[in-house]
Amino acid sequence: MQRITTSERLPGGITVYWKAGGDEMETSFSFMELVDRRINSLDLLEHPTKYVFDEGSGSLILKP
Predict the structure, then answer these.
(1) Are strands 51-54 and 23-30 parallel, antiparallel or unpaired?
(2) Residues contacting residue 26 through CB under 8 Å, at least 6 positions apart
């Protein structure tokens, strides 16, 4: 799992960024996807380092 380094609001969702092998990677989630995954969008924007991204499943997870 990759630790999210930053997040950015888009018109229809949020893009999250993480480092993998020295490269900056990104993926975007719509607000509906985040609601379905029970991710608080405002918390993700304000505290992105509290989340990790599982590249295998494409899941965004709040760290315990």
Answers:
(1) unpaired
(2) 15, 16, 17, 18
Distance (Å, whole) CA 30 – CA 58: 13
Residue 11 backbone class (left: φ over 0; alpha: ψ -120 to 50; beta: rest): alpha
Residue type at 18 in one-letter notation = W
CB 57 within 8 A of CB 1: no
Q: For the chain, what's the residue count? A: 64
Q: What is the pLDDT of residue 55?
A: 85
CB 14 within 8 A of CB 29: yes
How do residues 14-56 score in pLDDT, each as one tens digit?
Answer: 999 999 888 999 999 999 999 999 999 999 999 999 999 998 8
